[in-house]
Amino acid sequence: MTTTETGLAFSGGGIRSAAFCSGVLRRLLERNVEVDYLSCVSGGGYTGTAYLDWKYREEKKTSHEGDEGEDHRAKWHDDFFRYMRERAGYLCHWEKPLEGILDTIVLLGLVLLVNFIEPIIMWGSYACPIAYIIDLLFGKYLREKLNCDDVAAAKSGQQRNASSRDQNVTTQEIRQHCLSRQGTKDSDTIILFSILLILFIIFFILARKSSRTRRKRYATLLSFIHTTLAIFLALTFLPFAIHDFIVKIPLWTQYLIAFLAIIVWFFLPLLRTKTSYVLIVYFYSYVIYWKVYEANIVGIPFSAELFHRLLFVSGFALWIVPLVTASHVRLMHVYNR
């Protein structure tokens, strides 16, 4: 005994493909053809996914209500295609203006969530923890060696015109804080960058060689090490460059770097992933610069209390990232229904 199964393929082609495929599907359903396999590409996926979602819900409803037979099947087929015709507008249901406006608001909200809010929460939540780690491991080698007596005297003079809260900080406390965050010689900073660069090159070469030989099991580990070294090199050198060079150029020039990266990200999709990484590293570098050098960025002076609060918020954001990621997938499914 042989079993005959039917497979149906919907090709791509945007809305034209979706319309053509819906006509083919309707004629097949009118002839009671049972489709066992369905393959969809691009525009054909509009019809295919809509049909499968509707079919699943109708058959589930039928199993609960016990209503079976060709009459019921024909009825929900008609309902499905009528629903498709009503919703055939571009993205939103504009046959009913109020519903179209509501759909547009929902769609724009989803775009905002997926492309802006979610990446900001997901990637922004790592900024303060990474700044804390870089400051802990390399902060001493990035900061310059200072005369803490001169620093204490200078800040004490500035406090005479400051708020009463700042005046409560004594010269001795300022000196102790300076000593606790004392830097090193410039030569030590150069040695740090040189060591990270040399180690990166060594492990990069080893990883490439391992991937071409039978020892591929080591390639993953070596790739992880050279990637980590590259991140450490970027997140130490760039904050150092910001402190010594970039902050001395006009502010509009600093913004221009980020603006050009955003333009590349928007108009060159093939470079979008790499450009995203550049923007993330650039943003992290400013947060690290803010922490390591206790500097002022975008008019916000560094404060240990503020940084610790942001660190707490980052921990909470990292906790809800999986929920945010899962929510937009579910919201897109609800919108498509």
Summarize the structure.
By secondary structure, the protein is mainly α. 75% of the residues lie in helices and 4% in strands.
Give the spatial strand order of the biggest sheet: 1-2
| SSE arrangement, N to C | EHEHHHHHHHHHHHEEH
Number of helices: 13
The largest pleated sheet is described as: 2 strands, parallel
Number of strands: 4
The chain-level structural class is mainly alpha
Which regions contain 5 or more consecutive residues with pLDDT less than 50?
none
Distance from N terminus to C terminus (CA atoms, Å) equals 40 Å
Rounded to an integer in angstroms, the radius of gyration calculated over CA atoms is 30 Å
Share of helix among residues? over 70%
Query: Overall 3D geometry?
Result: elongated
Beta fraction: under 5%
Integer average pLDDT: 80
Account of the 3D structure:
The chain has a two-stranded parallel sheet. It has a two-stranded antiparallel sheet with strand order 3-4. The chain has helices at 14-30, 43-65, 70-86, 97-124, 127-142, 148-159, 164-167, 171-180, 186-212, 217-244, 251-267, 272-292, 304-336; strands at residues 7-10, 37-40, 296-297, 300-301. The protein is mainly alpha-helical.
Labels describing this entry:
337 residues, mainly alpha, 4% strand, two-stranded antiparallel ribbon, elongated, 75% helix
